[in-house]
Design goal:
The protein is about 40% helix and about 15% strand. It is an alpha+beta fold. It folds into three domains: about 250 residues, Deoxyribonuclease I, Chain A, CATH 3.60.10.10; about 110 residues, no CATH class; about 150 residues, no CATH class.
Length: about 575
């Protein structure tokens, strides 16, 4: 069967939402494609790549002129023995395409928008079914890499080979030599899969046989570091098979990149700078009206700009004529270079990765890995319960709507006293009073200093180390705010959450052994055990267990006053209860 890959540059997110799959069907060697330019417009495509066309040289001109109409097109029919394998068409009113290299399995083009905003290389690939013939493709791609020379480059099409055993629906016993050749080529040219959505398995052995379960991931969209750096919001979509045995593939490149405002995060190394306490002291003297908690919140907010600035400052910038600082900086730099050289040798020995070039010092490599992971974790589209797909800014709104409905349902609850006498064990009056007794500043400080310095920061971006280092300045105000509205922990005293992980590891130790008694382990999802508790039910239960009324008020205030935001692609979205 036949398929096509589409390279589209979306003008905005709304245009992307209307994208739908089209088809390019070859009924026979002499029949025309039953596709018009209207199909291209529905996809929002500016460049279209058709693979495995089965077009004879005598029919290529007539067919392509009919299909692409006013579009320009080219093919590799002159390099194919029997029929045309690759056809590339483009709208010359939107993009200019320069053909750099043509071979039997790949076409390298330089694509540039007419407005000069976007420019990158693209290799359109239709690999051979034969592993030995694919070795010619790998050599062509290595040659393309030398031509590209770190410029933005994307590769897309049918590679006719998988990378991993997990890319076979029925599994695979081992990584064979053909897969190893493919992976070695990927390492040599320094490319990786672009973050994509849609179908994971892009090829099916039989569309007409519903019982056929042989699926593989043969189609890919890959790119180099230069492409990720220039088009960080680019994404791939693998559409349903339709009448083909391959998934139509779409590459979307947003015309405008929305720069998100980064959330504040206190960096712990700032607390060790000499200016840190002076900066905190200066802002903390600001007069703020309101309750104790509001005063602390407002002053922490005022501090963020100055702490961000301090994060990027160094002593030499502040005192450029201080000779002693320059001597100290020079000695530190020498120590750093030596340590970095030692680290590079160790990491190269451990990693055994061919990407690392001498003198690269790992910096560019590891940053590229981080960029790649961040890009792959992006959520570019999502389906709702009605199977409607949403793109761009609408993705975050869909998550908000889902969780708002999930967490915000106020269902009916039977009074617990109707259930029967189930509260056999209750708190005594002495225990209840002990829980609401006056808490001292020393107890609050002790609890604060028990928190690990690298514990994940809260929504305000401040880590526990900030409060520890600035305790001499802000300690009393923070304690007053906590005592003004005290919350008590409901976790088991003396037990940390990671203790449960260690217990689980110890219990499951040896479960992979075939000898010994038979074993069984169940992983139970209990996330709904708290998220869906009815507030009225919770209050009734606390009261029946004998909790002090003041304690119940504290707990219910924490539960009912909480608002939620959802982090989608690094940006907080929504604010709901």
């Amino acid at each position: 069967m036949n398929k096509y890959a589409v390279l589209s540059e979306a003008e905005d997110d709304n245009d992307s939402k209307d994208n739908s799959s089209g088809e390019a069907d070859v009924m026979s060697d002499t029949d025309l494609y039953d596709v018009s330019l209207q199909k291209h417009s529905q996809l929002g495509a500016n460049v279209m790549n058709v693979l495995e066309t089965h077009l004879k040289p005598s029919n290529i001109d007539k067919t392509c002129n009919y299909v692409f109409e006013r579009w320009n097109w080219m093919s590799n029919v002159a390099y194919s023995s029997n029929s045309c394998r690759i056809v590339v068409g483009w709208d010359s009113n939107v993009v200019n395409v320069m053909v750099i290299h043509i071979a039997s399995q790949v076409i390298l083009c330089l694509i540039e928008t007419v407005d000069k905003v976007s420019k990158f290389y693209c290799s359109f690939i239709y690999a051979s079914n034969n592993g030995y013939q694919r070795q010619m493709l790998w050599e062509d791609l290595k040659a393309h890499d030398k031509v590209v020379n770190k410029f933005p480059w994307v590769l897309m099409g049918d590679f006719n080979i998988t990378r991993r055993v997990s890319e076979h629906s029925s599994g695979c016993s081992h990584v064979n030599w053909e897969m190893r050749d493919f992976n070695e080529c990927i390492d040599d040219i320094e490319v990786d899969d672009l973050g994509s959505s849609g179908f994971h398995f892009t090829w099916t052995k039989s569309l007409k046989n519903p019982s056929c379960s042989i699926l593989r991931k043969l189609d890919r969209v890959m790119c180099n570091e230069g492409f990720l750096a220039s088009y960080s919001q680019a994404y791939g979509v693998f559409h349903p098979y339709l009448i083909f045995d391959h998934s139509p593939t779409v590459l979307g490149i947003p015309h405008e990149i929305n720069r998100k405002k980064r959330a504040f995060r206190f960096m712990n190394h700032v607390a060790n700078k000499d200016q840190f306490l002076d900066v905190v002291s200066q802002k903390w003297c600001t007069h703020v009206q309101g309750c104790k908690m509001f005063q602390v919140f407002s002053k922490l907010k005022l501090l963020k700009k100055d702490l961000n600035k301090l994060n990027w400052e160094n002593a030499i910038d502040a005192n450029p004529h201080d000779a002693s600082l320059r001597v100290e900086a020079s000695a530190t730099l020498l120590d750093y270079e030596k340590a970095k050289s030692d680290e590079m040798i160790v990491l190269k020995q451990k990693a055994k990765i061919k990407w690392l070039a001498e003198g690269d010092r790992n910096t560019r490599f590891f940053h590229s890995v981080l960029k790649s992971r961040k890009q792959k974790s992006r959520i570019e589209s999502v389906c709702d319960v009605n199977n409607d797909r949403f793109y761009g800014d609408q993705v975050g709104n869909q998550f908000v709507m889902y969780f708002q409905e999930f967490l915000g349902v106020n269902g009916q609850c039977r009074p617990v006293d109707e259930i029967g006498d189930i509260f056999s064990k209750k708190l005594s009056n002495a225990e209840a009073l002990e829980m609401v007794r006056h808490v001292t500043n020393d107890e609050i400080r002790s609890a604060m200093f028990d928190i690990d310095d690298n514990k994940a920061s809260g929504p305000d971006g401040y880590s526990s180390l900030f409060f520890k280092k600035a305790c001499s300045i802000i300690g009393n105000d923070v304690c007053d705010a906590i005592k003004d509205f005290l919350t008590m922990s409901a976790f088991i005293p003396g037990r940390a959450i990671h203790d449960n992980i260690l217990v689980a590891q110890e219990v499951l130790k040896g479960y992979n052994r075939r000898s010994g008694p038979k074993r069984c382990a169940l992983k139970i999802d209990i996330q709904k055990a708290y998220d869906t508790v009815n507030w009225c039910f919770l209050k009734d239960v606390l009261s029946n267990f004998g909790f002090h009324e003041k304690m119940i008020q504290w707990i219910m205030a924490c539960v009912t006053s909480t608002s939620f935001s959802i982090c989608v692609n690094g940006e907080s979205v929504g604010f709901f209860k």
